[in-house]
Design goal:
It is built from ten helices and nine strands. By secondary structure, the chain is an alpha+beta fold. The protein has three domains: about 160 residues, Sandwich (Jelly Rolls); about 55 residues; about 60 residues, Orthogonal Bundle (Arc Repressor Mutant, subunit A). The protein has a five-stranded antiparallel beta sheet with strand order 1-8-3-6-9. A four-stranded antiparallel beta sheet has the order 2-7-4-5, with no helix packed on it. Helix 2 runs antiparallel to helix 3.
């Protein structure tokens, strides 16, 4: 029997099918979508709330007559009955997480939290990225415990994104000149994930002392340079696992780990799952990627 598309229904029509959710928020969809080339849609409306997190690629999100460029790390939000669309741009494959939810007949203070915003900020290398991935993984597992975890992750995402909106992404606390330097530092770190942090090089690049750089970086992005490096390594590992046939050992080396076991320990600590578990929970139903007929782990042992 064909299961109904819960995300497309009116909230009250979903309740009988959501046995693992006994109270709001009710999550009716949480999955990863790997867009085909030249994929797009326009003029779509839902009867529920939706969050999208961009894992990779670039696109254009349209809502209320405005077009917003989106890329890796961006979170965007649309409300019930808002007409919206999305266009995947050429280049890297566009991959995103979609979470659809509602609060049944209870009011949700969306405007109090998000002040009319549709673009909620960029969260690559941030805990929000991990929360989206874990929500998808837990949603695929039945049971009240997993349902509760999905709800707590969704609420954590809403809390953090609303904080970012309320604080204007904290950019007002940093001068325009300093922010440009910090973005340069951030890009430098992300481009050299296999090299680790070189404090002297980052001081030279930014013109800031190391301690001041750490403080300003955290003020601007919410995390320290070292925390960003770790989350960027995790994000890159996920991207490589999703988009390449590299072995887990090769993935570990590309993100700065010569020891696959040290990499696996770090990945599990930061995501709550091994890279093997991450891949197995997402490939089957959500990605539909046909990998070459080669051992994904490349004979290097457990990658998580």
């Amino acid at each position: 029997m064909h299961e109904p598309d819960l995300a497309a229904l009116h909230p009250r029509d979903t309740l009988d099918a959501l046995s693992d959710f006994r109270f709001p928020p009710y999550v009716t969809l949480a999955h990863i979508f790997h867009a085909p080339p030249d994929w797009s849609f326009a003029g779509r409306t839902l009867k529920q709330y939706a969050l999208n997190y961009v894992i990779g690629g670039r696109g254009e999100f349209a809502v209320d007559g405005r077009v917003h460029p989106v890329e890796k790390g961006d979170v965007f939000f649309y409300r019930p009955y808002e007409s919206h669309g999305l266009l995947a741009l050429p280049g890297k494959p566009f991959i995103s997480i979609t979470v659809v939810f509602h609060f049944a007949d209870l009011p949700f203070p969306a405007e109090e939290l998000l002040a009319g915003a549709h673009m909620l900020g960029r969260f690559d290398g941030h805990a929000v990225e991990r929360q989206f991935a874990e929500l998808v993984a837990k949603y695929r597992q039945p049971g009240l415990e997993n349902g509760l975890r999905c709800q707590s992750l969704l609420l954590a995402i809403l809390a953090e994104t609303s904080r970012r909106v309320a604080e204007g992404r904290q950019e007002t606390a940093v001068s325009r000149k300093s922010l440009a330097k910090l973005i340069q530092v951030k890009n430098h770190i992300e481009a050299r994930l296999d090299a680790g942090l070189d404090a002297a090089e980052l001081e030279r690049l930014s013109g800031l002392t190391w301690n001041y750089l750490i403080a300003e970086f955290k003020k601007a992005f919410g995390i320290t340079p070292m925390q960003f490096l770790i989350w960027a390594r995790v994000a890159k590992a996920k991207e490589l696992a999703l988009q390449s046939p590299l072995s887990f050992g090769e993935i570990a080396a590309q993100v700065g780990y010569n020891d696959i076991h040290a990499f696996g320990k770090m990945f599990k600590k930061k995501t709550g799952m091994s890279l093997t578990e991450f891949c197995s929970s997402l490939y089957g139903a959500d990605h539909r990627i046909d990998w070459p007929k080669a051992d994904k782990e490349g004979g290097n042992g457990e990658g998580g």
